[in-house]
Amino acid sequence: MGTLWVALGLAVGVSLTPADQEVLLQLLQGVRQREAQLVALSGTMVRHEHRTPADHELVAAIWRQVADERSLPPPPVPTVGTDDVIAVRFAIAADRLRYETLQLAAGGLPSDGGNGLAGQPQGTTWLDGERRTALDRNQLSARVEPQDRHFSPASAPTIGDALLLANGNRTWGDFLARRLTLAGLPVPGAADLDPPTGTVTALELLPPTTIDGRPATGVRIAYASPAGLAGEQSLWFAASLGYAVVRYESSLSAGAVERNQGTSAEAMRFTEVSPGLWLPSMTKTTTWRYSAANAQLPLTISVHRFQDLAVDPVEATVFTADLPLGTTVHDAIEATTSNVGGVDDTLYYELLDLDRPHVAEPAA
């Protein structure tokens, strides 16, 4: 396969063969068509995250620096890996999202002992296009603040990355279009993109391979940011799955070896949720960093399992915050604190014979 090498700071001269350019642009077209089918998305996700001792040590190192600055005792550091399981029910449309955190039992399984679809949520978050409302049902407290980002169903917070639909707040279609534009390829619609920055230092099609029994086309892209960070991403797309990403690898070089880090992810057990649109029922993501001895240390391993995935339109009312009577609402937009229904929350807890939890006031 042809390879494009670009000297930093110089105009990009494409040296890919015409056949390779055609393959790359076809990949982009397929990915864009897939994302256009995702006008809505709903389902349930159960995430099992394992944090290794290396991850605990990395976090503890940051807190030790803070403790030293404030003359505080150093924090304890777990010497064994820890596990966390959450279940989330979600519904997504453009710029709108609702997700509910389902209650988990002590053993880390959904509280109903089944698939996590039943039972009262511990908390609910609504994004309605203008504001973010987060409800803690245990404390009967909610906080309202401005919605800080726009997104499509594919790039929705948390869910987009977990389904391998996006990289951060960018869909793979947007990511690929920006990188190919930087490399000098004639990308359709390039004029409508936010001006990409940085430099593509390498671009190549990887040798044909098979992933989970399906042929996959791989692309490797090396990139340098204006700030001098060097990164590399490799993606594998399966045309038989509607150009879904079936594997992703990323690395970032930040100078000192021990600051280098990376991510690898793979998707499996695909289901056709609508004609030609395939979504994974399971994904696995591993983050890692290098030690000073140049050894790769896994930090976190996350396994996501999805159920009842659907792309049917979602009623607009789903994204409207529906707060229970008596909820204390801290509104950071209006700089107010109020109570839903005007109910005295102290009386509310007395009537139910509950201890009134402490709710921190919003920062001034």
* Gap between N and C termini: 58 Å
SSE order, as H and E? EHEHEEEEEHEEHEEEEEEEEEEH
The average pLDDT is 80
Total E-strand runs: 19
**SS-derived structural category:** alpha+beta
Shape: globular
Tally of DSSP helical segments: 5
Work out the helicity level. Answer: 10-25%
Major sheet attributes? 17 strands, mixed
Radius of gyration: 23 Å
Low-confidence stretches: 1-14, 108-118
- Beta-strand content bin: 35-45%
Element layout with pairings:
Blueprint: E1 3-5, H1 18-36, E2 40-51, H2 53-70, E3 82-93, E4 96-102, E5 121-127, E6 131-136, E7 141-146, H3 159-162, E8 166-167, E9 170-171, H4 172-182, E10 199-205, E11 209-211, E12 214-224, E13 230-238, E14 244-253, E15 261-274, E16 277-290, E17 296-310, E18 328-331, E19 336-339, H5 345-351
Parallel strand pairs: 7-18
Antiparallel strand pairs: 1-10, 2-3, 2-17, 3-4, 4-5, 5-6, 6-7, 8-9, 10-12, 11-12, 12-13, 13-14, 14-15, 15-16, 16-17, 18-19
Helix pairs in contact: 1-4
Features:
two-stranded antiparallel sheet; 41% strand; 19 strands; 16% helix; 364 residues; alpha+beta; disordered N terminus
